[in-house]
Amino acid sequence: MLELFGKDILQVLLAGILVGAGVPAVFAFGMRALAYADGEGPDGAHHRLGKPAAAVCFALVVAIIALGITIIVASGLGYHVSVERGYPTILR
Q1: CA–CA separation, 10 and 58 (whole Å)
Q2: Taking the domains of the chain in order of start, what are their residue ranges?
Q3: pTM for the full model?
Q4: Alpha-carbon distances, residue 58 vs 24, 35, 61, 82 (angstroms)
């Protein structure tokens, strides 16, 4: 019993750290990349990789938020979200 509790609490802790610190860190990296895109290089040209990197970061943040909302709404309606197939699926 205590072994299962320890395993479950570790999973909750890791998820909390990942979502609680990981998502804001990805957002901050996106903001930094966006600021990098507006800067100029030594020859006066703008940095090209900043905006695509920022777009990827922001898309990842939006996808994680959408997945979180989906899990909350699905559980409220009596469903659950499964990722057994590699992508989120809402099941009864």
Answers
A1: 28
A2: 2-91
A3: 0.78
A4: 10, 14, 5, 24
